[in-house]
From TrEMBL, chains A, B:
Organism encoding this protein: gamma proteobacterium HTCC2207
Ranges for domain FAD-binding PCMH-type: 35-214
GO molecular function: FAD binding; oxidoreductase activity
Superkingdom: Bacteria
Keywords of the record: FAD, Flavoprotein, Oxidoreductase
Cofactors, names only: FAD
Protein name according to UniProt: Putative oxidoreductase protein
GO biological process, one term: respiratory electron transport chain
Family per record: Belongs to the FAD-binding oxidoreductase/transferase type 4 family.
Length: 458, 458
């Protein structure tokens, strides 16, 4: 080890290699709640070339490394494990090019997501990737975890907006797969190896993203519905009438909706009566007047058809914000609910309603005084489950119960947060043995010494 | 060999194993023009299980195989090479499920594209993948080659509509990565290994595709412009005003436009004057009246701004068909031009115009009496180049000249047709040595004996 650290100090400038107490606690853990751990050393390369040389040395010394971006991951992938050197990409930061004609942006991996969003906005463009951690997370980490967030229903996950990237392999090889072209079938599309593989197959160092024109108008409504079947039928109808403009379809079960209103007295339900499902809709258009007309007429049609029981269209930004505060109230609920089993899962569309009912029943039969709150991006198959008993010792058991039920319903044990270390033991609940064997084949081929984010994912 | 054929006959029913003259010439070559070759045997498995057993046997005997779908590929990937057994997936044919609520279709790999298109249409849905060979090509081949076609500007390549798949590896292992969920970050997304890798890493046997609601109205216009800069500026403006509804942006250089009108006397230019660029636009909407208004006002705005010199909006299907006949006239040109170097390439958006001018000049300086026709899906970076001298011996030289120029301009040597055998020697013009080395690492890991579509791509 001392040999390696000495070689690294020799290779890099001393400010780039930190050890012991010089490593701030920030680098001991990500946001997932996985147990913190001080890395053997913390390296902060400034260039792809430096990172390549670091990896060549670590490879030579069989030294495991953990890759860190904004440390906002929720699966424990960036929390150091015992004996690992941490490599932070935070200094590899900056936008290299924004091409307003091709609508692309090229940036280094350590660039915060919000910096990219703002740069796009300045040119009347739009990066269709957004999540709560936008100010802290880095675009490299967004690629490594194939981040989801809002607007997936329209624009897809992070993967779908990546045109090209550069990555460093476990042995230091630099893969330059930078590309600004939509159509390119010249050999294997290697970027997909690095997107969503959580840093286990290579380190993303540079990205090219497809931007979109900024929408000129946004329209929001809160609807009430009384059956899950109405929800799925409404999704189909609105996809037909609103087309690609439908950018938000956020379902809240009454349990969640009522709990938020109970805990946040500043919010009140805009509806007179109680309903079983509450749905937040967002529609974007390039024309304010035509957009408002189209949105109103689509909703009116579905009030007439009976799929929607009641609906309120936001008449101002303030109205829209109030609707979103109910949906986003989960953040404040976490402050008061005590220990929560918080799961981010996916299910086939028609299974989400039956799964939710079944889960609610089974958990209530098994645990005393359990609260079960449900909401999700249903248009993307994504359900969020929060279950809490007030007892810390129940959390792991509830997590496992949910994972097992997801397997029964042929769902995905993680929709957007990833596997990391926290769900590694459950992977076989969502994937077949031959799939997992193929993942291991890839890992072995690309990182035969297993030094890159080891024990994450597989 | 005889041992293997005997084992295959024993394994499969005899109608599934053809040899010698029983193999119709259809299976000797694909549509690419690569030299035909009779395979050692032709196998027509009916199930994934049979295909898996075939591959296990071939793997055991180190027997190379070529995978055949609809045989419509243009890169020679499905044309047998000497000593290969051909495996046709044509009997693994049929739709297993069409889920009109989730808007997904699940089908076997040997299902013709048009069958899927029609099934979607019957449910008022739309499969956003279309190409000239729709009646003959199979969906498995579309995935293997990551087919492009029209509407890529809106919906992306085939890859972007694949939710899940099943594939058989070189050793017969079945990878079941069937999935109907938009969000699924549960481990590596293995499907991307098989999409666009032209059958060299595995055989796609079953697919799940995301469908879209069928648009209710379609609007077409033919525009005239006088500079390439106006073309790219117009693309930006129309993306802003028409949003996701812009589904066609087909540019024709005057050389191409005039040649089509010269060769096809049934067509006449709807414009009084000559222009440098002709642009076919298509816009789709979910509302006929609003859609027509929006399209007309967007075009009027750009006539006013001066980006468009002249524009004609189709007033009927007949008008729209006439505009498309000019764009699709290339099919008939091929009948009369003699030997043509026909290249499908991609370039960064702003480079397409300068590249086209430079290519035209250089080819005309080098070859006597050369004709150079240019057109393409510019919104997807895709340029089609047709160059002809009437002399067969020039074709290969012209191909090579174009490939070398693409490399100079940092473009892609193939946009949508793929590498196959025909462009294999040129791959290094578009990809770096470390990328090609990584492709070989993947190939070696997944097909160590090199029996699956050998000598294609890499």
């Amino acid at each position: 080890m001392n040999n390696l650290i000495a070689s690294l100090v020799e290779l890099l400038d001393p400010s780039t290699v930190l050890t012991g107490a010089d490593i701030s606690e920030k680098y001991h853990a990500d946001w997932s709640g996985a147990d913190p751990c001080q890395p053997l050393a913390l390296l902060k390369p400034k260039t792809t070339q430096q990172l390549s040389e670091i990896m060549a040395l670590c490879h030579q010394h069989d030294q495991p490394v953990v890759i860190q971006g904004g440390l906002t991951g929720l699966a424990g992938g960036a929390t150091p494990q015992s004996g690992e050197i941490a490599i932070s990409l935070e200094r590899m930061n900056g936008i290299e090019e924004l091409d307003a004609t091709a609508m692309t942006v090229t940036a280094l991996a350590g660039t915060p997501l919000q910096v990219l969003q703002d740069a796009a906005e300045d040119r009347e463009l739009f990066l269709p990737l957004d999540l709560g951690a936008r100010g802290s997370c880095n675009i490299g980490g967004n690629l490594a975890t194939n981040a989801g967030g809002t607007e997936v229903i329209r624009y897809g996950m992070t993967r779908s907006m990546v045109l090209g990237l550069e990555a460093v392999l476990a042995d230091g090889t630099v893969i330059n797969a930078i590309n600004k072209m939509v159509k390119n079938n010249s050999g294997y599309d290697l970027k997909h190896l690095f997107i969503g593989s959580e840093g286990t197959l290579g380190i993303v160092t540079r990205v090219v993203l497809q931007l979109q024109p900024k929408s000129r108008s946004s329209h929001t409504a809160l609807c009430a519905l009384n059956s899950y079947e109405s929800v799925t039928k409404l999704l189909v109808e609105l996809k037909r009438s609103l087309g690609s403009g439908l950018t938000g379809f956020e379902l809240m079960w009454d349990s969640y909706y009522n709990k938020v209103l109970e805990v946040l007295p500043s919010l009140t339900s805009p509806f007179q009566e109680n309903h079983t499902y509450y749905l937040l809709l967002e529609y974007k258009d390039n024309n304010q007047t035509l957009g408002a007309e189209r949105f109103e007429s689509a909703l009116f049609e579905q009030l007439e058809s009976g799929l929607i029981d009641d609906a309120l269209i936001a008449q101002s930004h303030q109205d829209a914000d109030k609707f979103w505060q109910i949906r986003d109230g989960i953040g404040e609920l976490f402050q008061v609910l005590g220990p929560v089993s918080n799961q981010d899962v996916s299910l086939p569309l028609e299974q989400i309603g039956p799964f939710a009912d079944d889960l609610d029943q089974r958990l209530k039969a098994k645990y005393n005084n359990i609260g079960v709150l449900l909401f999700g991006h249903i248009g993307d198959n994504n359900l969020h489950v929060c279950a809490y008993t007030g007892r810390d010792e129940d959390k792991a058991r509830i997590n496992e119960d949910i994972m097992l039920m997801i397997s029964e319903y042929a769902g995905a044990i993680t929709a957007e947060h990833g596997i990391g270390v926290l769900k590694r033991d459950f992977l076989a609940l969502s994937r077949t043995p031959s799939e997992i064997a193929l993942m291991k084949t890839l890992k072995m081929a690309m990182d035969p010494k297993g030094i890159l984010n080891p024990k994450r994912v597989i």
